[in-house]
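Need a sequence for this fold. Nothing fancy.
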């Protein structure tokens, strides 16, 4: 029936007996649901079962992408629904019948992924009928321009939508607010390559927000009472200012990072966090448990900001530190090659280190003296620490023995004793680098799992 359908294995065997078609209809439904959609309807004897099976349409199943549009159009029209999943990455969607968005809505689509192939990207308007699909639970969109009438919101119906992923989408702040307002159970929002300069978050249901590489200059959590995880993926371009992050109302925030002093200005409520900021009730986020920071330990100002950030999160139990390579284009910060021992001796007690911190993961460890000075400070202050995991920069250390040799050369017996109890050197650790894993609420620590 379908273009490019693959051959199904023979149902006959064991003396010519048809074993598959003899199975109960419930089992056959399960088999059909897991077949590529072109194969699922290919056997006429299963036609009645195919029409009553929630269908998965993925144009990646088509061996000839150039013929995807016609095949998808036929299946959208022929199957009565519901559609469990529809993923269209190769179709030229403007070439489909203009009613295709209404078919998706009318036939109960639950998970929808639409990648616009039009050129230039982000110029084709996304059909507004997509937002009238009341059955949607997951929505992933890439390279679209949002419909200009979305902010009207009169008949937008998204009562079951739990996950939204927007990649390289041209969307106004008003349209994003409208989308969130009409998604009362939305839990996960991922935005990557966002071109707008402001992003103000208002949501009574969101639990996780992931912001990918983007041009956002001001990101504000204005009112998000259930937000647990706020993750910033990818490093901004060299020399680029990543803008201000304002945490105004997020009482349940548990996970935050990566914050990077070179590119981020952190604001808590009305207070901008500076290198000399001291702990006070107006500048702390007491519920945070997992914090990730990216710091260049050769830049004195960044190390001072590291200490300030730690004061703002007094109850963290897991700290991720990534050692950042100095960016020569960031001239205004300059490079400081001095030892930082004196700085850490002057830093006042940090509550999270003294009372709560149990685990430190040091990513891209380079073995620089200033990194060791930070570790010595941790050794002095972190009374509850149970483990320190060093993940060396690739190619930097051949084995844990080399790290231990450097520790021995520091001439600090107290640090040597402490390191022997909690230090673990690992050449490799899995890090949630892609957007899907970063937004997975089942992963307790999205920076290391």
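Here you go.
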């Amino acid at each position: 029936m379908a273009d490019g359908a693959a051959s199904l294995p023979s149902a006959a065997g064991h003396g010519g007996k048809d074993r598959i078609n003899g199975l109960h209809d419930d089992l056959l439904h399960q088999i059909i649901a897991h077949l590529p959609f072109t194969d699922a309807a290919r056997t006429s004897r299963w036609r009645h079962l195919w029409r009553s099976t929630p269908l998965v349409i993925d144009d990646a199943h088509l061996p000839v992408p150039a013929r995807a549009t016609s095949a998808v159009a036929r299946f959208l029209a022929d199957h009565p629904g519901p559609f469990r999943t529809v993923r269209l990455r190769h179709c030229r969607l403007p070439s489909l019948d203009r009613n295709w968005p209404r078919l998706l809505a009318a036939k109960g689509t639950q998970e929808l992924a639409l990648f616009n192939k039009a050129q230039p990207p982000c110029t084709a308007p996304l059909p507004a009928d997509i937002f009238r699909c009341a059955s949607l639970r997951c929505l992933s969109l890439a390279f679209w321009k949002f419909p200009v009438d979305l902010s009207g919101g009169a008949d937008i119906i998204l009562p079951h939508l739990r996950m939204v992923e927007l990649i390289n989408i041209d969307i106004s702040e008003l349209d994003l607010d409208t989308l969130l307002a009409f998604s009362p159970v939305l839990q996960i929002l991922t935005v990557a390559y966002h071109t707008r300069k402001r992003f103000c978050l208002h949501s009574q249901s969101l639990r996780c927000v992931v912001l990918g590489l983007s041009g956002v200059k001001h990101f504000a959590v204005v009112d998000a009472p259930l937000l647990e995880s706020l993750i910033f993926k990818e490093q901004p371009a060299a020399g680029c200012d990543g803008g201000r992050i304002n945490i105004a109302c997020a009482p349940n925030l548990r996970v935050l990072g990566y914050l990077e002093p070179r590119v981020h200005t952190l604001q808590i409520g009305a207070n901008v966090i500076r290198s000399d900021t001291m702990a006070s009730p107006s500048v702390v986020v007491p519920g945070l448990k997992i914090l990730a920071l990216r710091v260049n330990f050769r830049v004195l100002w960044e190390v001072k900001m590291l200490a300030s950030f730690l004061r703002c999160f007094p109850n963290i139990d897991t700290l991720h530190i990534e050692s950042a390579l100095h960016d020569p284009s960031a001239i205004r910060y300059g490079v400081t090659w001095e030892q930082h021992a004196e700085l850490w001796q002057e830093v006042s007690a940090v509550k999270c280190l003294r009372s709560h911190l149990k685990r430190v993961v040091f990513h891209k460890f380079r073995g620089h003296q200033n990194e060791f000075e930070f570790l010595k400070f941790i050794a002095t202050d972190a009374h509850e620490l149970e483990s320190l995991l060093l993940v060396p920069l690739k190619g930097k250390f051949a084995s844990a023995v080399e790290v231990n040799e450097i520790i021995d050369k520091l001439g600090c017996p107290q640090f040597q004793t402490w390191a022997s109890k909690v230090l673990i050197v690992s050449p490799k650790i899995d890090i949630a680098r892609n957007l899907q894993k970063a937004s997975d609420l089942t992963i307790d620590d999205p920076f290391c799992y």
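For context: Residues 1-13 have pLDDT under 50 and may be disordered.
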